[in-house]
Design a protein that fits this description.
Two copies of one chain form a homodimer. Chain A is α/β, with parallel strands linked by helices. Chain A is built from 18 helices and 15 strands. The first copy, chain A, has two domains: 259 residues, Crotonobetainyl-coa:carnitine coa-transferase, domain 1 (Rossmann fold, 3-Layer(aba) Sandwich); 77 residues, 2-Layer Sandwich (formyl-coa transferase, domain 3), CATH 3.30.1540. Chain A has a six-stranded parallel sheet with strand order 5-2-1-6-7-8, with helices on both faces. In chain A, α8 packs across α9. The longest helix of chain A is centred in the middle third of the chain and has 24 residues. The two termini of chain A are 32 Å apart. At the A-B interface, β3, α2, α6, α7 and α8 of A face β3, α2, α6, α7 and α8 of B. Chains A, B: Keywords: Transferase. Chains A, B: This is Acetyl-CoA:oxalate CoA-transferase. Chains A, B: InterPro entries: CoA-transferase_III_domain (IPR050483), CoA-Trfase_fam_III (IPR003673), CoA-Trfase_III_dom3_sf (IPR044855), CoA-Trfase_III_dom_1_sf (IPR023606).
Chain lengths: 403, 403
């Protein structure tokens, strides 16, 4: 299924031959389909009449472009379809017949009401990979529970795990559950596509933001399993290693990561406190964990005498892992960010690049921007209005269509 | 490449036919290869002599099993190989010849020093997908900078974005950068495997925890691009919508997510403060953002009179998205977690399940546990000691081997 002219600005990639029909909206689904797009797939975004994807109305804006929308829709084509009207439904079904992948993140049940359940669409295209992303999944008692990122973060336990012992549960400062759901949706699609090469059959991929966030719980979940008690918030320190935390220098904080006794000895020497390595309270990692607050106080007494820049240089030179605490601007301006092509331009806007680097495929610094609403509507209506000659006649839509 | 007896406890999945040689250790790489394993691949974990993967020595423990190790190594086979000794190198190269995927997360340059660069291994197996995961990537000035999760969180900006305006930068309460790197490594592998079906060629996948975390920065990165200033920490509230935050009830906090004026009106009515919806300070979302602190005070004055459980029922019944703030124990015990099979057992230990649900493949509640050190060593040495008859003779190892 070939690329149209609109798409030729995009890189070639491992998914060059794919046609993706993208019904997802807001952040979670579009984040997943942007990875497909970055890796070469042709992604046609279907938007509802009116203002299209809600995120087109979200700030911040540059000119009339929503950055929120632009970030997760770069490189896609846009067509407005009213999926309750016969003419547009016919175009949609023609797209489905030719598509490799369909993605949707409506509330579970919505697609079936439209007559577009997996079962219905698999009948007209058995090779279709149909990916559903949702807050809590297609099954279970919370399946249709409203699921904004903040709700899923709150209910998964990750908010309770983040923050300081004397502070409140803290939301991860990015829409973590949305993004986890999106990237795992991509994982499911890519896996099902690989399997299709063997089986010739499509599949239904069902990914939940909630499940995806649980998979990211890691040590907190394991501690609960081990002790039967929920883990406590521990701020910036490591649960099992010390010193492994943010420390205050004279001017600002920085990070020291000492994973073993050898590194701890090097650290103590580097900061002019070699006697700490011989202190019985700090002899082993277990000792250091047991006396973590005392250790931090001893270290910060020394560290507070010089700037973070000083200590980063001195401690790094001693072979101990350290790093600065950077804000987003500083992170974006790191030479490493440039060298890794992680600050790209799409449609004249700068945004994070594609983290999936694969040899043999270009990783362009300038990518096609996000489409304006219905930008490719006329061309797509023409392309998908006539039935391809090799295809069977269209089926009657399901009788349970919501109108 | 068929499954051995050791593997038959695992589910079948889309990657059933794959042999993965896994040199990754600690968290980041093993998280990625666990997804491959969950989805059916045979994953052989190669561990160094001594105590094997470092995480075998990390708590918490159940009996003699490290939960940390067990979580990200379930279903894998283990063999101890000394990659600097000729006999073990020969076994390793025999594995490589037959493998579909090789994964490693050594510091960049280490594999080349061992004579196992992508180029060297592609010569003996051109179909090999060779995936490198690292802190900062295989290229760029920070390529070999020590990269623990906390350092990458600190340097990516996500720590600076997380937390409250009057508090410090806050580490996400889970090893987010490790996990992001691992899941994007999986994305690269699955994509390259799909492409191999067309090209017959392997590829080198190069994923960095740093890049992966930048891709997760979302609104903070976009705000910086838009305004030229780094975003400020905003605690638990939403950057663009209000009320969309954690609110205090009489007993504990809970989440309300009001994305538009209609929902705001329903909320005000539900909590017995209908006049707030008519208040000029709160008329539109932009007004509510501009008077966010006043709005929160008004809402909490009402909400603090009843319990969170009361408000969750009342506000949910009104059609406004709400949710409890749960700890990990409460999240694990949600009926939804059970219904989605997200609390599984592997090797007698409970842990998060596989969030990638694909129709046509089982999603077993009981999976094979993580291997003991060298558990499959004898069997694997036998399986991979003799050259497969169809394979060419072994190449001479590179001359730059580090010994």
């Amino acid at each position: 299924m070939s690329h149209t002219a609109q798409h030729e600005g995009n890189s070639k990639g491992p998914f060059d031959d794919l046609l993706v029909i993208d019904l997802t909206h807001v952040l979670n689904g579009p984040f997943g389909t942007t990875i497909l797009c970055d890796l070469g797939a042709r992604v046609i975004k279907i938007e509802p009449p009116g203002h299209g994807d809600d995120t087109r109305t979200y700030g911040p804006y540059v000119g009339d472009k929503s950055l929120y929308f632009s970030f997760v829709n770069r490189g896609k084509e846009s067509i407005v379809l009213n999926l309750k009207h016969d003419e547009d439904r016919a175009i949609f079904l023609n797209m489905v017949r030719q598509a490799d992948v369909l993605t949707e993140n409506f509330r579970p049940g919505t697609m079936a009401k439209l007559g577009f359940s997996y079962e219905a669409l698999a009948e007209i295209n058995p090779r279709l990979i149909y990916a559903s992303s949702s807050g809590f999944g297609q099954t279970g008692p919370l399946s249709t529970f409203p699921a904004y990122d903040t709700i899923v973060q709150a209910m998964s336990g990750i908010m309770d795990e983040t923050g300081f012992p004397d502070g409140p549960p803290t939301r991860v400062g990015t829409s973590l559950s949305d993004l986890c759901g999106g990237v795992f949706m991509f994982c499911g699609i890519a896996s099902a596509l690989y399997a299709r090469e063997r089986t010739g059959q499509g599949a239904h991929v069902d990914v939940a933001m909630f499940d995806a966030t649980l998979a990211f719980l890691e040590h907190g979940f394991m501690s609960y399993v081990s002790t039967g008690n929920a883990p406590q918030r521990i701020g910036n320190r490591h649960p099992f290693m010390a010193p492994f935390d943010v420390f205050a220098a004279a001017d600002k904080p920085f990070v020291i990561c000492c994973g073993n006794d050898h590194l701890f000895g090097l650290l103590c020497a580097a900061i002019g406190r070699p006697e700490l390595a011989a202190d019985a309270r700090f002899a082993t990692n277990a000792d250091r964990i047991a006396h973590e607050a005392q250790l931090k106080a001893e270290l910060e007494a020394a560290l507070s005498r010089e700037t973070a820049a000083h200590w980063l240089e001195v401690i790094h030179a001693a072979g101990v892992p350290v790093g600065p605490v950077l804000n987003v601007e500083e992170a974006a301006k790191l030479p490493q960010t440039e060298a890794r092509n992680m600050l790209i331009e799409a449609g004249g806007l700068r945004m994070p690049g594609n983290p999936v680097k694969i040899s043999g495929y270009p990783d362009p610094r300038v990518r096609t921007g996000a489409p304006t609403l219905d930008q490719h509507g006329a061309a797509l209506r023409e392309e998908f209005s006539a039935l391809p000659s090799a295809q069977p006649t269209p089926p009657t839509p399901q009788t349970d269509i919501a109108r």
